[in-house]
Amino acid sequence: MFTDDIERTHELTELESIMMSRFANRFYLNREVDPAIVKGILNSARYAATGANVQPWRVHVTAGNAKERLINAISAAHEASPGDHSSEYRYLPETLPEPFASRLREFGTVFFGSLGIGREDVAARAANTARNCRFFDAPVALIFTIDRRLEKGSWLDLGMFIQNVMLAAKARGLDTCTQEFLSRYHAVIRANLPLGPEELVVCTMAMGYGDPDWAKRRPQMPKLPVEGFASFHGF
């Protein structure tokens, strides 16, 4: 098969190994991250591709007391009235078509199964969701925003910037987890951080030193082989 040919003939570069080892880590050690490391990650990430050099990204980085105040505010809002909060954009359509719906269900089975949480255990699932509000106890929390006046093309650029952040962090021994979930609490975030009125909260990110025990036990999410998503013409 085509994938087998790749594995036989293609020796992974260091960058590719980092790309393939990265995953959304939701368990972190109680270990501070040197702010110089975070600045170094962002310094590298700013070289992300961006159409016409627009550079549409903004990121608010929090740690220490600033992060704790944000966590407390978001957690209080989530506990009191989660239904009153919603994102300023739609991440997925209301009805997810196939094959994407099946992949989403598979994710839930694999992820919650790895935590020992059953499909019908509503309380345990809710408790796990609430961990988002604490940024999974990671020492650094980042909030990514984009100017709401921009169009979809700039959102592509923002995604490439965020991917650069994740890869640069992994290269420095840090793990990350992006969180679309917390975009629904944009008003709470805005009340606790100096966001401009034009800034739309796209997602947040937990960053820190991942728990090595969890890294050994965490499941590998299934990915399609190359022939499952790519077609080649003229080769």
UniProtKB/TrEMBL annotation:
Keywords: Flavoprotein, FMN, Oxidoreductase
Molecular function (Gene Ontology), one example: nitrobenzene nitroreductase (NADPH) activity
Highest taxon in the source lineage: Bacteria
Cofactors (names): FMN
Enzyme Commission designation: 1.7.1.16
Keyword set includes Oxidoreductase: yes
Domain Nitroreductase: 20-209
CDD domains in the record: PnbA_NfnB-like
Gene3D superfamilies, alphabetized: NADH Oxidase (3.40.109.10)
InterPro entries in alphabetical order: Nitroreductase, Nitroreductase-like
A Pfam family per the record: Nitroreductase
Similarity comment: Belongs to the nitroreductase family.
Name used for this protein in its record: Nitroreductase
